[in-house]
Amino acid sequence: MQPEDSKAVSFAQASYTDWYESVYPSLCGYGLYLKGGEPDALSADEFEKRDWRILFARLSTWQDTLESFTHRLLYQIARSIDGAYPDYAFLPPWTDVEIFDRGGVPWMLGINSKRGAAAFDVIGISNSIVQELVNLAPMLEHSGIPVKKSVRMASADVPLVILGGANAIHTSLLFEPDPMVDAIFAGESVELVREVFCVCADGKRKGLSKPEILANLEKIEGVILPDNPKPTQKHFAKTPDTSALMIGAPKPLSATTAGNGVIQISEGCRNFCSFCSESFVRKPYREESLGVLLRDAYSMKKRDGLGNIDLFSFNFASYGDFYTLVENLAAIYPTIGLKSQRMDTVADDPRLLPVLHVLGKATLTFGIEGISERLRIYLDKGIDLSTIMRGMEAVIRAPVREVKLFFILTGLETERDFEELRLLAAALKSAISRAGRGPRLVFSATALVRFPWTPLEWETSPMVKDVQSLYDAFEKIVKSEGFEARAAAPAEEFYVSQVIARARSPKVVEALRKAQKKTGYLYYMHVTSKFCNALRENLRGEGLDPDEAAGALPLDDESAPWIMLGSGLKREFLRHKALDCRKALEITEKPRMQISRPVPVSSIGRIHEKIGKIIDDRRKGARVVAIGVEIPRGMKGVPREVAGSLLASALMRAWEDLVPHYMGFDGSFFCKGWDYPALFGMDILYLRFTAEGEALLGAHLAEDGAKARIDAFLSPRMEISATLPADVPDCVALEIHSPYPFKAQQFLSDRHIKFTMRKPESSLSVCEIAAQSLKKSPIKRLSVRSESGVYNVSLVASVDFDARDMLTNAFETPTKEDWVRIDVITLFHGKK
Ligand code: SF4
């Protein structure tokens, strides 16, 4: 047994709630990421009541995966199975790792149940990028899960470890005799994911052994056992089928995601860019139907209190009914988030930029990829110089604030290619000068990682030392034309990614683990040179050439381990594409740049005007409605944006006619200038509605039983106040309960507030603010009662009172973070 395997059994199966309560002030963001109790998540009590439990573990932090909907989708699939209890775990932030270790707490800790990985039946590792695999062994080790399959299999109590996710197909690193995971599942089909979960749950209920469950899993398309891989391939669902499932999914306690929904409009991409693993491993391109999307977007808004919806796709404008979709969504949603589009779409579709403008999109990103025509052909990007310039001419004239152009450095760049980059930058500079305006242009470069199951699988990668020179040459040219240049990732990140992506010997994973152990490195969105060097050294130690470990196999070689886990595309097809890419490198003629004017908008319909009018009409009369709420202690520390979306949802669920009229959350009284980690109690939430919506809401709120109807949806997270404040208060009353002594006199004196202290009772001190201080002092009244080691402070203060200043300086807290343990109950005090 390895040292980490013996340590593995030492973690408790019990809840770590007490530990969390004892350390949360010291955790990153005061432990909000681990607070749990997310709206719409199953209650922690269900952990004991249900008989099959699965923990979805991300190999990155909560913060870094907040916008991903994968683990939330997995949660929804799992909860649809009778008797199943799902939960999530994340890599602890690096600042918190020591706190976990000091407390003997598993890193993989369910945020809602507060149970460690060992207490679950299955650990579902959700792996989105190759670099994250560095974190797999330390995450298991520090969670009481043996890293070796043989050790895990020897104990029936250790959960099964199954890896899936967007990167699952690039996990040949894990193909070894005694692997870190028991099974790998590649595929996006919701039905097959559910089948994987059902096989595990049924296996447990029937009393099957883990090897028996794995044998049943292996029968599912796309499941492979990495210690004994048998050929399989991904299965494709006809449509993404995810939008309905996401309705009512748990909501992270995050201000950035509250009120924002994501709807998947398509799966994969129509194009065949030769470097693009995302596209090649998700063929064919599939779309969700317009009807399904509109139905689910509507229900999602109502159920989840949304004010924005992001369209998830690789290229939103590829969606067949894109403009109809946007037009219909604009009639329900005040804002629509769109991420990426191709330059050729902008160049050839004059409707797109004006539509993006009316949707308020001021920053655009385009993948130009190759720095020259021949490299773009090699990368099969399918956009020539004339198309780029035609698109950019349109972009430069459009009201766009910033444009990011992404380039890929292949390692095949010659002086001639760099000269073409210079010509492109110069042409853009003169286009901006001709237009007399233009957006801020940022040129971003990244070194190309050649992924298996793409046509570049067999292509040689550059040496890590050459990548930095390529970045330098790129930067010099871009800057010489007066633009900003950025390296999207350091050369070390390229190298480590390439080694993992094309791993084909168990020695690679051995070297990776040794390098990780030696350096203590964990991947937090950045690869360090220390870890990169340690990996190279350990690869050498394993008898591998560090450069060859990331190298390519000959085109006719079919010995690579990843062949066993197929993408669904034929190898011959990929080889054929690979030969086309190689031919592109022989191109010698110079590209011709024909700068043609973009097609005028007037020549093909004016959809943007239609959409713009819908948006304008709704925004024009929009009103902010103030609703008083009472927030209980359980919601202490939860961002008010989350409370806002809960209230919006409650209102729309109570009265369906409000759904099209809700226009988003507009903050709260205690959102601005108040630190809310310690605050709860009364607040005013501001919600925007169309003019018609405001009238409807007013009428509904006046109905008999309106409060009870809303509170039924809000309970137990909050309730609306029986009476709304007639005016926005200019004074607040705070009731502060602190276990730490309160130094009233020193605090007031330090802030030059004159006062006299009275002691009407032995446990009560009253600070009378002197008349000459009263006008300027934010504190108007202050008293403190100390009884049984609890300090109850009552104060009346102006709305610009700096509560954090008092909480962090006026109480004798054991650590500087413990101020968040103090309870601050907010009340409104009306006018002065
Ligand atoms: S790079 Fe973009 S356009 Fe090209 S295949 Fe990938 S997702 Fe599609």
Task: Lay out the secondary structure.
Blueprint: H1 3-8, H2 17-23, H3 32-35, H4 46-49, E1 52-58, H5 70-79, E2 84-89, H6 97-102, E3 122-126, H7 136-141, H8 149-154, E4 160-164, E5 183-185, H9 190-205, H10 210-217, E6 223-224, E7 232-233, E8 260-264, E9 266-267, H11 277-280, E10 286-287, H12 290-304, E11 308-312, H13 322-330, E12 335-338, H14 343-348, H15 352-358, E13 363-369, H16 373-378, H17 385-397, E14 402-409, H18 415-435, E15 440-447, H19 464-480, E16 484-487, H20 491-501, H21 506-519, H22 529-541, E17 565-566, H23 571-584, H24 607-620, E18 623-631, H25 640-654, E19 662-668, E20 679-689, H26 691-701, H27 706-714, E21 719-720, E22 731-738, H28 744-750, E23 755-761, E24 764-769, H29 771-774, E25 779-787, E26 790-798, H30 803-809, E27 823-830
Parallel strand pairs: 1-2, 1-3, 3-4, 4-5, 7-17, 8-11, 11-12, 13-14, 14-15, 15-16, 20-27
Antiparallel strand pairs: 5-6, 9-10, 18-20, 18-21, 19-20, 22-26, 22-27, 23-24, 24-25, 25-26
Helix pairs in contact: 9-10, 12-13, 12-25, 13-24, 15-24, 17-18, 18-19, 19-20, 21-22, 25-27
Total helical segments:
30
Strand content: 15-25%
What class would the helix/strand composition place it in? alpha/beta
Biggest sheet record: 10 strands, mixed
Hetero groups in this structure are: iron/sulfur cluster
Number of DSSP strand runs: 27
Q: What is the CA–CA distance across the termini?
A: 71 Å
Low-confidence stretches: 1-9
Which bin fits the share of residues in helices? 25-40%
- C-alpha-based Rg, rounded: 29 Å
Mean pLDDT: 93
CA-based shape? globular
